[in-house]
Structure formats: C-alpha cells, structure tokens
Amino acid sequence: MGKEVEIVFVSLDHDADGFDVHFKTMPWLAVPFDVNLHKRLRERFHVNRIPSLVHLNLDGQSVDEDLIGLIEDYGEDAFPFTRKRREELNALDDSKRQGGKFDQLLAGPGRDYVIASNGGKILVSELVGKTVGLYFGAQWCPPCRAFTAHLVESYKQLRSSRGGCFEVVLVSSDREQNEFDANLCSMPWLAVPFEDRTRQDLCRIFNIKAIPALVLIGPDGKPISTNGKNIITLYGAKAFPFTQSSIEEIEANLKKEGDLLPRQIQDIKHEHVLKLDMAKAYVCYNCKRQGKFWAFSCDACDYDLHPTCVEEAC
Questions:
Q1: Cα dist. 112→102, 108, 203 in Å?
Q2: Whether 216 contacts 131, CB under 8 Å
C-alpha cells in the first residue's frame, strides 16, 4: 500500500535465546533484549496481557486502545489504526449488514461468485430475489454435523415445493482446505471459497460467536433473523419464509392443535398416566418415528407417544 508504518517488537521472552528465535520470524524491528527496559515500557503503556499492539503517534504518545482485535478483524484495512478509522469500518459493516445488497456481503476482490460442491461457480447476482441462509459451520464440529442434517432436510423440502426461492451459502470455519472440501461435498448448497477473507468478514459483520449458526436473509437482501438455527430446528421448512409473521402463524396453529388435545391420557400400551407436553423433538415409542411439538409423555420414565398413536383404555 506504500504507507509509512513501522513495528517495533518488545519481547517478553524469558531469555535472550528465546528472544533471538522469536525475532527471526519477524520482518520488523525490535528493542534489544533487556528485561528492565521491557518492564518500564510495559508499565508506561499499561500492557497487562500479550499479545498487545500499542499505536504511537509522531510524538510517541499512545493514541488508541489495544489494536489486536482491530487488526484481526480488518487486517491492513485498519490503517491508520485510529479511533476514527475503527468507527468508519464499523459503519461500513453496518451498511453491508443492512444495505440489502448480496454483492457487498458475498462477493470479494476479483470474485463475483460463490462455489458449488461440484466446483461450479454461481454468480452472486443469481441470489438476488431469493431467501438466503448464511450457514456458519465446520466439518470438525459435532453440533454442526447434527444441525447440517436438519438443514439438508428442510433445504430439500423447500427446493422440491418452492423451487429455487431458497438457497444456503456455507461460511466455513474449517481449519484447512481439505476439511472444507469434505464439508462442502456433503452439502447440496453453495459456499464462500475457503481461501477468501469474506468468510471472516461475515463472521464479524453478523457477530457470530459460536457455531453452528444460520443467518436468514430475505429476498430484499436484508436480514430476517440471526436465529435461523433455532427456527430450522424447531419448525423446519414449515417456517418458510422465516419471517416473524410466519413463525407467529405456526405457533398459533400449534396452540390450536394443543387446545384440541386432552391434558392427559391413559394409553393401553403404558402403565403410567401420560401428560400432554410440548417437545422440540422426540421419538415415538410406538411407531419409532421422530416427532415434534405435541407429545404425550410419562413423568416416571422415558416414554413419549405421538398423539396419533394413542390407544386410550376404555
């Protein structure tokens, strides 16, 4: 970028040999190894943890808080590392999050496409007008693998019943290219390329702190929900188009269903009284099929019965 910038390493290594080994990996300058000098610098600039990066102005004064997070989030775009630049970058993130433009979110420098599991390239512009789920996950993460199964089921149902109105784009947290490749091969949807920094940018823009996570974006390019994981887990494809009104409609219908069911029953297949319960997911003891929502459950033992499998005693 041709900018006037320099970095000076202040070592907290235990000894000079450790400093020498460490410093050889760095392309910049260093204060000579001197424990007392390093202690004075640490106290002057209030360094209480490492790594720390202190930004000095031309007068040698510290001009901002620790910059490690800023550099990790924005890299060279953070230059000149001032509070004003931080605010500009935060405003840019807000604009991308709320601006309604898929190209600003998903495209990168020299790249106007996302990739498919077969290696094909799909233009980001082809996502305009669709509901899109940004799936933050990784192949090494067991909860991600479990949620992927739920998402694949909902995805296939929507592709079958709604055509191409819904798409998912993987935003991978895999550690290596081969992990990413294995992950994407198991999925029927698209992905941001592994080597692209857009993956990290999207995690920052949507404040993703844990995976799996699913951010749902509407056909207008604006966020519908950052809680897509729970929506899919609870309601699956029925929740489409995933708006608040569609969720409220589902919940209202579920309440009506529950109101028509007895509060408790005595089924001939079980010795205890079964009480009506709302369950996120269960396996019916009778038909062995997975159920959701309303179930008749036993307080005394692990026994769940789908309402349609009830055989009440006379």
A1: 10, 7, 19
A2: yes
Write the pLDDT tens digit of every residue in 131-155.
999 999 999 999 999 999 999 999 9
86-104: per-residue pLDDT in tens?
A: 899 999 999 999 988 899 9
pTM of the model as a whole = 0.81
